[in-house]
Amino acid sequence: MKSVVLLREVPDPNTLRYDPRLGDLVPGVQRVANEYDLYALEAALRLREQIGGEVVVASVGPARDALTRALAMGADRAVNIEGDDLPGDAWVTARILAAWLQREQPDVIWCGQETSDSGTGNVGPAVAALLELPLVSNVVGWEFRAGLFVIEREIEDGHQFQEVAPPVVLCALSALPQPRLPTLRGIMDARRKPVERLTPADLGLDHAALRPLVQWEGLSQPETKAAGILVHDVPPEEAVERLLAFLESRGLLG
What we know:
By secondary structure, the protein is α/β, with parallel strands linked by helices. The chain has six helices and 13 strands. The protein has helices at 35-51, 64-73, 90-104, 123-131, 184-190, 236-249, and strands at residues 2-6, 9-11, 18-19, 24-25, 31-33, 54-60, 77-81, 108-112, 135-145, 148-155, 158-164, 168-172, 195-198. The strands form three sheets. It has a nine-stranded mixed beta sheet with strand order 11-10-9-12-8-1-6-7-13, with helices on both faces. A hairpin with a 4-residue loop joins β3 and β4 (24-25). α2 (64-73) packs across α5 and α3 (90-104) packs across α4. The longest helix has 17 residues, at 35-51. The radius of gyration is 24 Å and the shape is elongated. The model has no long low-confidence stretch (mean pLDDT 89).
């Protein structure tokens, strides 16, 4: 069975710093593989261990470190689709991936439920829609038996079980088994595994197909609010005096 894992490289959430003067992140933030995508990769590797097959990781935009880690974890090969202004918004990313996936014809497409940078959760559903494939989101457990996936998914008031036949798109949550750490041998083997580099033009996509639907205007930081003052266990008269003094100190009394 061929599994494709959609992987995205994101700024490390543990090292993010915002610079209000720049209106952007502090330059030089380390980039890592999106956490949910690693859970999806672990699921794909376990499926290969169970029934055999191939695990391919694919990413749109800069993703050298993330793809290297995926190969070191055990993926068989990687594909990196690069170009100006990529990865773009979720729609652009999904269109590019769908064009490539039509060539690959995988049995199952794994991806994280969402990414930690944009958090839209739209890429997986958009890919499924473009390829006209069934989608199961919020996956927290799975089994493969008798040619069917038995999926446990998290819903608002509990868990739900579904059966679905491949090909299918599965969106993983972090309740799945922890992603394995790359071994020394895995890191060494990753250097010899193939990484195919493509552009949108290689997939027959022109500039019109890469026009984003969402424009980012920049980042901002919410204003911090001053902590309130609680007055309790005092006589009412004293509480009123404190309130008046507080308002007067801030020029709020006429």
